[in-house]
Amino acid sequence: MLVLRSRLAAALAARTLAPQVCSSFAMGPRQYDGTFYEFRTYCLKPSKMNEFLENVKKNIHLRTAQSELVGFWSVEFGGQMNKVFHIWKYDNFAHRTEVRKAVAKNKEWQQQCVIPNLALIDEQETEITYLVPWCKLEKPTKEGVYELVIFQLKPGGPALWGDAFKRAINAHMDLGYSKLVGVFHTEYGALNRVHVLWWNESADSRAAGRHQSHEDPRVVAAVRESVNYLVSQQNMLLIPTSFSPLK
């Protein structure tokens, strides 16, 4: 019995003294702040892009009266053509439920926008994301183009790859050729996925900055570390619509 008690005491002491493994992704404000961002991607029928966007433009005020639209873009490069991408902000899940109920009851929105546009859409996808704790949503002060980079990372979550990923993002930020808008970690959708939204003055300035980053030893070192956790990645060049809050 004395031996058993001694072993138990030693185990408890070891647990108390052991360093706690944490990540800048896994711990932090997102655990306590209910704010999240819904990513919506619509694939439209060929030749129907202009009709869809014009219809949304005329009626978007009916939708934004219910919740905040962060940005609305058309996809210029990367992935499927005739695609739009938009981000909506919610205080919490109860807030989203209230908004969805209000939107469903709004006959003007339903009849003037939703019903006509349904015939123009081939596919819809939605993801729920949180801003990572070390990042806040930034709003560029002038118009430009946006790049959405989607990283699919290895299973294990932010506790495994969060710190290395943060170092890679910061290394690119330090060069200053592109401005970080936000880093989002998926809560509902493909797990271990991170979306990084960048702003650039133009597609050409983005290309020039990328060439510069490939020759920077700080970026190269950070990317070599983070790539050990990478499964795949994809990027899209996004053009903001005339009614997008993020220009």
Automatic annotation (TrEMBL):
Record Pfam families: NIPSNAP (PF07978)
Domain NIPSNAP: 37-136, 146-245
SUPFAM superfamilies: Dimeric alpha+beta barrel
Record family assignment: Belongs to the NipSnap family.
Source organism phylogeny: Eukaryota, Metazoa, Chordata, Craniata, Vertebrata
Listed name of the protein: Protein NipSnap homolog 3A-like
InterPro entries assigned: Dimeric_a/b-barrel, NIPSNAP, NipSnap_domain
Coiled coil regions in record: none
